[in-house]
Amino acid sequence: MASPYGTWPSPFDAASMAAATPRIDGARFVGDEIWWGESVPAEGGRITVRSSTGAEILPAPWNARSRVHEYGGGAWTADAAGILFFVDGGDQRVYRTLRGGEPEPLTAPGPQYGGLSVQQGRLLAVREDLRSEQHRRAIVEIPADGSAADDESAVRVFVSTSGFVAHPALSPDGTRIAWVQWNTVRMPWEQCLLHVAAVGTDDLATIGTSTALQPEWVSDHELLFLDDPSGRWNLERVELDGLHVVSRRAFPSDADTGGGLWVLGNRWYRPLDDGRIAAVRTNGADELVLIEPDGTSTHLSLPVTSEASIDDAAGGRILVSGAGATVDRGLWVLDTLTGQAFAVRGGVPIDRNWVAVPRPVTFDGPHGPVHAFDYPPTNPSAAAPDGELPPYIVMVHGGPTAHVGGAASTAYTYWTSRGIGVLDVNYGGSTGYGRAYRERLNGQWGVADVDDVIAAARGLAASGASDPDRIAIRGGSAGGWTVLCALVRGGAFGAGISRYGVADLRMLASDTHDFEKNYLTGLVGPLPEAEQTYIERSPLTHPDRIYVPVLLLQGADDKVVPPNQSEAIRDALAARGIPHEYVLFPGEGHGFRRAENIIAAFEAELAFLGRTFGFTPN
Predict the structure, then answer these.
(1) Do the bridges between strand 421-426 and strand 76-78 make them parallel or antiparallel, or are there none, so unpaired?
(2) Of 53, 174, 443, 588, which has the maximum CB count within 10 A?
(3) Which residues are registered as beta bridge partners of 551?
(4) Strand partners, 1
(5) How confident is the model at residue 21 (pLDDT cuts 50, 70, 90)?
(6) What value, to the nearest 5°, has the Cα angle with vertex 378 and ends 374 and 381?
(7) pLDDT in tens, 332-383
(8) Which DSSP letter does residue 481 get?
(9) Strand, helix or coil for residue 283
């Protein structure tokens, strides 16, 4: 018997979705074992570290989470002897522990750390100290003997700045250190410099000058890094004599090896012992390639198409985490010599009868092509009445300098298995399509992104794939801003779901955290010169233009987009009698990590769409 879209019975409830394959947070070869970080939603979203032997290396209540730059990353690492180093999410101190032992602090209270790595037997990190104005961030070496646990001065500082730093790389002989650095008025994808300095001196050279990423030494005299002077993030190799560049070579490709430097743990490539390089290349979806010394490349067969990270390398083997169009999220070992691969965690093939396989689609927009991935309603035991078109949710990713790659998604299966399609849009400003596409949003946030999601929604409806009267728009953070702006524009969406979204640009400029303090300068314009633009574009200025129901979801402890943003738009909608709902989640920051809140949020969204679009979810 036919059932209306949205009412199809589904075995994928919100609880099973919250308990699905968790996010992988870094991975390492440790002796004969493989260790990886893993989120545990049932334990408040804490990050544990597990081993391929089945052991939990970091038991509760310890939580490997960094707050450097607010988004963290690189909160744990390990050495070959099996010593775990991690940043505790509670006090942001660095600890060390042997398997089964009690963690011992290595740093004093006060600063916070991230981007941990063991190099040449030394523990390096990025330190952020918000108590200081002139030396807020530094590349440091942390003594592993615990001598800095009560004495901050025992931490060795390689470089300090009032700006931002990431990706420290110590040369094999320990005489030089490379890192990337950007100032407080630019974002790292706007300009990020690669510096190399002689350790213990003031001598410094700048090698990468565009948007440099991830320096890696391959010998005492050769350095690899990523940069995008050509408009694509590509690999470069330089030979150095001291700090002087002797030769330089690029490995060009019409794809990006690199992305937005939001977190400190990203690794887009790894050099191998035999001189080859395993790398991620992104042009819409991710691809793994092996780059030979002569610059030629071959495809590496692994079903990862999104969020790919080459977390570690040992000999000819690499550890790759990510998600795929035909497999769930996971962690794989790939032998680049034989091509053999196996999943360490997750990576299970999807059931295509139930899980929608995304298809890349492109729509014409006023600023050029708009790229997206379509996840159609998929359920082997249900069908809709003849002539009925499905409701759809247009998903808007955060960032906005970020990217979705088209991967099987338990979260999206929650919708598609019920007969609700999903369209995931990489609006202009997204990474993964080159710098020109990324810079489409410069000065146009709230305009170009809105044009693009509207063009995608209308293009989907014009193709006959969706019901034009039952298209909702959903996004979080910067995506929530685009949701609210699109509702103000009107005419394309019948409902909106904003998760911790931006409602007022001036409020955001005054309240947001240090890392994004000047993000809006590039996206909108400088203050106070562009203040009128800030006012005109803000949804909070035009609540009278919103005529469709709105669901607002917000973390009470969010420091990136504080609750006052959602509450301001809530009050404006209430004053006009616009149907709306507001749900505040205590204990949540920027994004929901606790299982009970993930469940509550998805159930609230499904019920909201049912009420709005006239169906009763099964």
Answers:
(1) unpaired
(2) 588
(3) 497, 581
(4) none
(5) low
(6) 170
(7) 999 999 999 999 999 999 899 999 999 999 999 999 999 999 999 999 999 9
(8) H
(9) strand
Beta carbons of 317 and 335 less than 8 angstroms apart:
yes
Rounded CA gap, 519 and 499, in Å?
20
pTM over 0.90: yes
Structure tokens at 412: 């999206």
> Could you tell me which of 242, 244, 179, 246 has the C-alpha nearest to residue 215?
179
Closest CA to 10 of 327, 494, 410: 410
Tokens 């949701």 belong to which residue?
Answer: 483
pLDDT digits (tens, 9 = 90+) for 415-426: 999 999 999 999
Q: Which pLDDT score is estimated for 589?
A: 86
What are the distances in angstroms from CA 299 to CA 242, 303, 348, 582? 35, 11, 21, 47
- Give the pair of three-digit tokens for residue 150: 């009560």
Per the model's pLDDT, the better-predicted residue between 307 and 16 turns out to be 307
Structure tokens at 365: 């927009």
In one-letter notation, the amino acid at residue 236 is: E
164: three-class secondary structure by DSSP = strand
Kind of pairing between the strands at 33-40 and 46-51:
antiparallel
Cα-Cα end-to-end distance for the chain: 15
Task: Return the residue matching tokens 């019901």.
Answer: 467
Instruction: Show the tokens assigned to 597.
Output: 């809140």
Length of the chain: 618
pLDDT of 187 higher than 70: yes
d(CA 269, CA 537): 39
Distance CA 50, CA 512 (A): 34
Does residue 450 contact residue 472 with C-beta atoms inside 8 Å? no
Provide, rounded to the nearest whole percent, the portion of the chain with pLDDT above 90. 85
Tell me the two tokens of residue 245. 């560049």
Q: Please tell me the distance from the alpha carbon of residue 155 to that of residue 487, in angstroms, as a whole number.
A: 51
Question: Nearest Cα to 466, choosing from 352, 347, 319, 361?
Answer: 361
